[in-house]
Amino acid sequence: MMLVPMRTIPDVQVNIFPNCGHWVMIEQKAAWESAVLAFLTGPLGEGSGS
Fold it and tell me: By percentage, how much of the chain surpasses pLDDT 70?
């Protein structure tokens, strides 16, 4: 299901949280916070070639 966005959205990032339902920010709080912080503090446009 996520293959189309992964191939068509520039600089897309996908994070998979195993053994988790719809409330990832509660069920896997530390992993979610880590992924969000990495996204927010990461370089803009990395890999875009620009």
Answer: 84
